[in-house]
């Protein structure tokens, strides 16, 4: 119970105040507590971590260790007190008691410490502590110079060396201003936090719209990015803006210049979000990780000023904070590229005495060939006094993001032709240390996020690995994973016990007290029952006794001289109590399996040594600990042990339900999963290099055909009965461009008007684990190569479906007899077949009859994956499948009408389509830029100073935005019925007070900003009822479908009505559109406007409302919803001139809330239909 109690106490501590201790959270180390210590009187703010050396001793006599990355000087030096303080922590204290003790003790230590004037050098928390001992050796950084480290020992707050972060002196303000103006000239959006005139900001934000980078839409989807979002780099200068020489001389683990890279719905995050990113709970979490019903973006309304992590935030932040200054020094010193600088850094880390020779720059795009011209300039090689550190850092971050699949995310070594090359998602190289860092340092995806938001994909991935293991088709067993497994071949290490017939309780006989004392709650072990099978089917081939010859009828087994011994039955169990209570109660996590003959004999011999007497209801058994690694086993036993471990992974549905009920907890905190299970599951999810999205729901079971007649499927987009369709994307971001170029070559030659064709690829289930990780290739021969080397495809689904059946591809693991398929699977996949698009250069194929054989991997792109599911699958799985709305395409893929992918039927019907056009990239000119607050730059223009000049003249920042026209004060308020003051107005003092403050805040904002910058307007003079406002949303971008509709109809604003109840701000307001009418969702509309005009947002219900939200943010949220493109808000051209009424708005609001499971405010009736 110690572990459970520890996490319960930690959860309680998060809600408790401890004076100087705040931001309490789980530490980065296992069984650790991280927190922030702050003391305003001392100008001290720093993070610490408390590690419990043995959590099983929690409240019983535990020992502790304190660590921190902060090293102050003089009276703020805490490093000398850590060891003594660690020893003084109450050994039997709870988390709350320990934190209260540390809060008081640190305050006393800092107050009474004698300042001797020396700078105390405190080592940062070593990354090697995250690693296994096998991989931690030699991880020190040889580049850290002692002199530089002493000269630039950095702190976030120090009385003698500058004020706390919130009050930084204006050191280098002029240099910062020049650097930021240069970044602005490169088309980056600059934000200052806080935005105060002529003051050095605490944080700086640089942003760029995602769409500007020119990445394909499928890549953005796979990376969790939207074209309308912004990539944001936050910067915190702890000691003013440094010179380039000072910045390049910083040690590796510096705190002088700190970065956070992520994404945001708005071009500038809030100051609270920025502060949280640097001083809060560490890395910002992925969005929607706890959404109980994750749907499309129309249901996902988040704070637009929130700063969120993207898929590369963790590794990029690490490089920015620990390596960028060194890489910049190497780049400038040897005039080389970023890629070469990474290679030089790796060489120096390996051998500090390496004689590095100057290297050529080489041909390398600064970010990517599709990046904006303004960012193709190599600003890192400018003259020393012209280098803009923020601009260089943003270029570097964007480069690492766009090219994340080209190099190992841990060591940055080029992937070459190895495991991760040419894939859609980033991964690591083949070095065990890199894999360990990828999983342990949070470089990979969050398993909690994936289980909640993509449960069906997780279920499918586990099934694929299990199938690969059981059919010996797995190409790479993850030997570097720190997972523990039992070894039944070492029976002498096991403990002899008695187990009941249901595997729920164990009794430890005399003689095994040492093992008994080691048992802890939550521990896994393998229980081998040697008596349960004696009366059941024997294990053939095991010598026991010689049976007489029996010759009988056809149903009698002939056993002439065959030796038979009953099999040993094993199961994986988890201890639910320690041995101090006598019997050990346990839960069986797996099914029961039998053991191979050789292991059976050794297990029986071990048990017989104890001569246990028979006892009714109890059998003699052997218990084996999970104490071996995969490296210690033979190849066959490795696969068997991996499969055994996978049988213990709980069903994905149960894991998801637990995470939804415990949104702030990690999966590793659930008592159903062991650490080894979490590590294995993390690797399964993280090593998936493809993008799989189920886009078709399972129909009624009655529609399922006979699996043997798969060639009689219907055609079109209705799907294939009995198969679940996934959108299946593979390949690095540049592979699609290579594919398109190859297809364009076909058009250029004029040999055919069909540049691509579609074909099927079928492969046994055991192969798909490798295919989704490394892509289609022909490195392994599964069915012979009768028609040459290459990828085999067929224009007929029935043909490829034959090859998707499991043919003998290797022996099953012999150590245990386990089922062929993962028993906890929800989908229960039987086979899989991919629909691929292929460049139509048949003359260059290896073969075209009877199959297509293509030896050019870049000519084949997977588009869909059809997975045949088991008979037991029900429609309940459809709740996991997000219904994807069909988007109108601006073009089509031309195909010959004779194409018959589904054998007797054509796959699709020819339809007229517009010519394919490419969208014009629009650049933001954010008029709300804060940069002018620092004062004008020394020059009226900021010319390009980069090493590589862009083609043509330098772009200038546009001062005109194409917005819908709007003139304030032109709305005819008399056309909107007035309402009297509500009956609760006089008695709702809190609501009146808050609403009065909100009106003042909105008036102040409108007085200081141009109405075009705001995008909303409230006529303050017309407010005669604080509980009911009329708001206009206006100045929409004309490139939006909504903006074009407004211009076409002459609409200048979207008129909203906002009503407040007596419970405001504890209950949300009611927001609806008055005019114009919008196209409803059922007819392809969007913008979060319901059929009755009410705004459909969880934010405006009890489920999502926060009393701390300002009305400015609410209005901005509603406006952002109208600007979304998936699906886009459109005006109903046939219903113009008709206003929405309150009755239809309320009914539509209630329907939307019920459909999403949102809670409606109790006062909805009185503040809408019963207003009086």
Describe, in plain words, how this protein is organized in 3D.
It is a single chain. This protein has 1172 residues and is an alpha+beta fold. It has 6 domains: 2-126, Roll (Ubiquitin Conjugating Enzyme); 168-285 and 301-404, no CATH class; 406-444, no CATH class; 491-544 and 564-686, no CATH class; 691-880, Phosphoenolpyruvate Carboxykinase, domain 3 (Alpha-Beta Complex), CATH 3.90.228; 973-1167, Ubiquitin Conjugating Enzyme (Roll). It has a 6-stranded antiparallel β-barrel with strand order 9-10-15-14-11-17. The chain has a 5-stranded antiparallel sheet with strand order 18-19-25-23-20. It comes from Purpureocillium takamizusanense. Pfam families: PARP (PF00644). Keywords: Acyltransferase, Glycosyltransferase, NAD, Nucleotidyltransferase, Transferase.
Features:
1172 residues, alpha+beta, Ubiquitin Conjugating Enzyme, 29 strands
| Uncertain spans | 114-169, 281-301, 535-564, 702-716, 883-892, 904-923, 938-960
Number of domains: 6
Query: Roughly how much helix do the residues carry, as a percent range?
Result: 25-40%
Number of helices: 30
- Specify the overall morphology: globular
The amount of beta strand, in percent, is: 5-15%
Strand order of the largest sheet: 9-10-15-14-11-17
Average pLDDT over all residues: 76
Radius of gyration (Å): 33 Å
Structural class: alpha+beta
Pfam family, one: PARP
Protein name: E2 ubiquitin-conjugating enzyme
Keywords: Acyltransferase, Glycosyltransferase, NAD, Nucleotidyltransferase, Transferase
EC number: 2.3.2.23
């Amino acid at each position: 119970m110690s572990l459970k109690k520890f996490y319960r106490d930690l959860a309680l501590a998060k809600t408790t105040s401890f004076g100087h201790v705040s931001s309490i959270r789980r530490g980065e180390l296992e069984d650790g507590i991280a927190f922030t210590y702050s003391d305003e009187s001392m100008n001290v703010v720093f993070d610490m971590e408390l590690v419990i050396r043995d959590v099983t001793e929690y409240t019983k006599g535990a020992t502790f260790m304190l660590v921190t990355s902060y090293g102050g000087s003089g009276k703020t030096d805490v490093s000398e007190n850590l060891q003594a303080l660690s020893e003084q922590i109450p050994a039997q204290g709870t988390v709350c008691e320990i934190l209260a003790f540390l809060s008081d003790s640190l305050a006393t230590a800092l107050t009474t410490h004698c300042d001797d004037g020396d700078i105390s050098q405190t080592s940062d928390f070593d990354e090697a502590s995250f690693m296994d001992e096998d991989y931690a050796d030699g991880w020190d950084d040889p580049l850290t110079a002692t002199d530089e480290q002493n000269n630039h020992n950095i702190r976030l707050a120090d009385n003698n060396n500058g004020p706390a972060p919130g009050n930084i002196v204006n050191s280098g303000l002029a240099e910062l201003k020049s650097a930021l103006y240069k970044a602005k000239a490169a088309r980056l959006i600059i934000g200052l936090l806080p935005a105060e005139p002529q003051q050095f900001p605490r944080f700086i934000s640089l942003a760029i719209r995602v769409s500007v980078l020119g990445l394909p839409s499928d890549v953005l989807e796979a990376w969790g990015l939207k074209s309308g979002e912004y990539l944001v780099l936050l910067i915190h200068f702890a000691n003013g803006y440094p010179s380039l020489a000072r910045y390049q001389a910083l040690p590796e683990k510096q705190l002088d210049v700190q970065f956070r890279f992520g994404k945001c719905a708005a071009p500038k995050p809030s100051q609270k979000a920025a502060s949280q990113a640097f001083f809060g709970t560490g890395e910002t979490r992925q969005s929607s990780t706890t959404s109980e019903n994750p749907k499309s973006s129309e249901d996902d309304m988040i704070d637009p000023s929130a700063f969120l992590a993207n898929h590369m935030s963790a590794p990029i932040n690490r490089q920015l904070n620990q390596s960028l200054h060194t890489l910049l020094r190497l780049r400038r010193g040897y005039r080389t590229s970023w890629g070469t600088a990474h290679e030089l850094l790796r060489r120096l880390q390996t051998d500090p005495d390496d004689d590095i020779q100057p290297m050529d720059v080489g041909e390398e795009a600064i970010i990517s060939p599709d990046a904006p011209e303004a960012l193709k300039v190599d600003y890192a090689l400018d003259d020393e006094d012209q280098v803009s550190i923020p601009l260089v850092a943003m270029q570097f971050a964007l480069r690492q993001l766009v090219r994340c699949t080209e190099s190992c995310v841990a060591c940055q070594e080029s992937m070459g032709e190895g495991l991760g090359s040419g894939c859609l998602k980033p991964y690591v190289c083949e070095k065990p240390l890199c894999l360990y860092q990828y999983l342990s340092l949070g470089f990979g995806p969050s398993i909690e996020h994936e289980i909640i938001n993509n449960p069906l994909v997780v279920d499918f991935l586990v099934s694929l690995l299990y199938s690969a293991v059981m059919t010996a088709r797995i190409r790479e067993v993850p030997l570097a994973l720190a997972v523990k497994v039992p070894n039944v071949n070492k029976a002498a290490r096991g403990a002899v016990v008695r187990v009941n017939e249901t595997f729920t309780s164990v009794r430890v006989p005399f003689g095994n007290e040492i093992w008994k004392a080691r048992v802890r709650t939550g521990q896994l072990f393998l229980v081998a029952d040697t008596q349960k099978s004696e009366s059941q089917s024997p294990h053939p081939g095991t010598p026991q006794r010689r049976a007489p010859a029996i010759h009988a009828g056809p149903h009698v087994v002939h056993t002439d001289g065959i030796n038979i011994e009953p099999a040993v039955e094993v199961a994986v169990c988890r201890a639910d109590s320690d041995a101090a209570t006598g019997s050990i109660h346990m839960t069986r996590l797996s099914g029961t399996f039998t053991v191979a003959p050789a292991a059976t004999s050794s297990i029986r011999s071990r048990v017989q040594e104890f001569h246990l007497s028979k006892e009714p209801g109890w059998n003699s058994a052997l218990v084996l600990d999970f104490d071996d690694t995969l490296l210690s086993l033979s190849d066959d036993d490795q696969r068997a042990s991996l499969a055994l471990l996978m049988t213990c992974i709980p069903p994905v549905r149960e894991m998801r339900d637990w995470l939804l009920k415990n949104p702030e907890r990690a999966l590793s905190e659930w008592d159903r999963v062991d650490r080894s299970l979490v590590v294995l599951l993390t690797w399964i999810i993280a090593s998936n290099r493809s993008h799989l999205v189920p886009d078709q729901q399972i129909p009624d079971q009655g529609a399922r055909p006979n699996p043997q007649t798969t060639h009689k499927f219907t055609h079109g987009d209705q799907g294939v009965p009995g198969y679940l369709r996934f959108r299946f994307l593979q390949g690095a971001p540049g592979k699609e461009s290579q594919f398109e170029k190859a297809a364009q070559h076909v058009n250029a030659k004029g040999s055919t008007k069909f540049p691509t064709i579609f074909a099927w690829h079928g492969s046994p289930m055991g192969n798909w684990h490798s295919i989704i990780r490394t892509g289609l290739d022909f490195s392994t021969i599964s069915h012979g190569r009768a028609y040459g080397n290459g990828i085999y495809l067929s224009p007929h689904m029935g043909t490829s479906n034959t090859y998707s059946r499991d043919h003998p591809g290797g022996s099953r693991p012999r150590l245990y007899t386990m089922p062929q398929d993962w028993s906890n699977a929800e989908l229960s996949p039987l086979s899989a077949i991919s629909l691929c698009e292929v460049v139509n250069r048949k003359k260059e194929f290896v073969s075209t009859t009877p199959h297509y054989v293509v030896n050019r991997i870049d000519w084949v792109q997977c588009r869909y994956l059809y997975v045949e599911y088991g008979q037991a699958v029900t429609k309940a799985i459809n709740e996991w499948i997000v219904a994807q709305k069909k988007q109108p395409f601006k073009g089509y893929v031309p195909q010959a009408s004779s194409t018959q992918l589904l054998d007797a039927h054509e796959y699709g019907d020819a339809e007229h389509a517009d010519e394919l056009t490419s969208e014009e990239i629009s650049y933001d000119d954010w008029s709300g830029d804060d940069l002018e607050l620092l004062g004008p730059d020394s020059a009226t223009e900021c010319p390009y100073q980069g090493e590589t000049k862009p083609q043509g003249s330098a772009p200038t920042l546009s001062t005109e935005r194409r917005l819908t026209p709007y003139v304030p004060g032109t709305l005819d308020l008399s056309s909107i019925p007035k309402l009297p003051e509500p009956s609760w107005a006089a008695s709702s003092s809190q609501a009146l007070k808050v609403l009065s403050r909100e009106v003042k805040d909105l008036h102040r904002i409108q007085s200081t900003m141009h109405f075009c910058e705001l995008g909303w307007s409230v006529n303050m003079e017309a407010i005669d009822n604080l509980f009911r406002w009329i708001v206009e949303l206006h100045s929409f971008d004309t490139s939006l479908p909504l903006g074009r509709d407004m211009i076409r109809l002459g609409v200048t604003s979207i008129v909203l009505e906002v009503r407040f109840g007596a419970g405001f701000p504890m209950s949300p307001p009611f927001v609806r559109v008055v005019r114009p009418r919008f196209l409803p969702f059922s007819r392809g509309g969007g913008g979060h406007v319901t059929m009755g005009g009410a705004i459909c947002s969880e934010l405006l219900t009890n489920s999502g409302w926060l009393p701390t939200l300002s009305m400015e943010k609410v209005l901005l949220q509603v406006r952002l919803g109208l600007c979304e493109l998936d699906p886009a808000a459109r005006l109903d051209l046939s219903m113009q001139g008709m206003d929405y009424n309150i009755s239809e708005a309320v009914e539509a609001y209630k329907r939307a809330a019920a459909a999403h499971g949102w809670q409606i405010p109790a006062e909805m009736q009185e503040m809408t239909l019963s207003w009086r």
